[in-house]
Amino acid sequence: MGIISALGEASGEGGYATLSFSELQEATGIEDNGHFNYHLKKLVEEFVEDREDGYALTLAGIRAYQAIVAQQQLPSTEVAPFDLHSADECHCGGVIEAWYENGRFHAECNECDESIQYYPVSPRSFDVADPDTLVTAAARRITRDESSMVRGVCPYCTGNVTWSFEMPEGYWAENGMQQEDIVSHVACDDCAWFMYGTIGGKARFNTIISSFLATRGHDPWREPPWGEPFEYTERVLSDDPWRLELTYELEGDELTVTVDGSLNVIDHELTEGAVDRED
Ligand SMILES: [Zn+2]
Ligand SMILES: [Zn+2]
């Protein structure tokens, strides 16, 4: 870890560093040549590339360095519960509280304990003394990961993802979450990173849906991802193959989209003034 970190820390503008044997040894602080060489040899090929001009991280080495950096400060960083002002009050009338613990941002109702959000956020991405910066960092992170998943790319390892709409029994009960009518589950085929959520909420990152929402004051890229301040309904048209119909309603306009099993929009219809006419 020291050798990988030293190569990572020596990197900066313009790319990852290449260090000579002695530069790398000095950076790791291991004085004994044989001891240092023994550990370096173990890393060469898989994590460290032995080049003519020195040693550099391989792609696996870069991934390992990222994991080391992400892990630093995790155990020591905590933010005590505070009111999450940007979220609506819970349907039970309770107040949504947020806090940071064990590397994760949490948001939960203080009355009914319903979990609103639970997601890893780097302790380096916010100021522990300022809870607003934690809220912003969590919102950015979740938005990035959800939108990447909707585009079919794992935000962690860049692998392909697979969507499913079936619920493992007891998941929501275990996590204190309330089950929606249909819940989406998306998992990386390679690293198994997964996310749960409502279909209508996840699908908002689709261009057609996001532009409908954004031009009516609800930009999904800027609003906190746990709010869902827009109305929508969902309907299963077919489960083999999956065809789901989502209807979003804002400012009297209605957007109806049909999505497939990967949340790709395969059909859509915009009806402006739809709600007024019905009234
Ligand atoms: Zn509640
Ligand atoms: Zn992955």
UniProtKB/TrEMBL annotation:
<dbReference type="InterPro" id="IPR055771">
    <property type="entry name" value="DUF7347"/>
</dbReference>
<feature type="domain" description="DUF7347">
    <location>
        <begin position="2"/>
        <end position="68"/>
    </location>
</feature>
<dbReference type="InterPro" id="IPR036388">
    <property type="entry name" value="WH-like_DNA-bd_sf"/>
</dbReference>
<dbReference type="InterPro" id="IPR055775">
    <property type="entry name" value="DUF7351"/>
</dbReference>
<dbReference type="Pfam" id="PF24038">
    <property type="entry name" value="DUF7347"/>
</dbReference>
<dbReference type="Pfam" id="PF24042">
    <property type="entry name" value="DUF7351"/>
</dbReference>
<protein>
    <recommendedName>
        <fullName>ArsR family transcriptional regulator</fullName>
    </recommendedName>
</protein>
<feature type="domain" description="DUF7351">
    <location>
        <begin position="91"/>
        <end position="265"/>
    </location>
</feature>
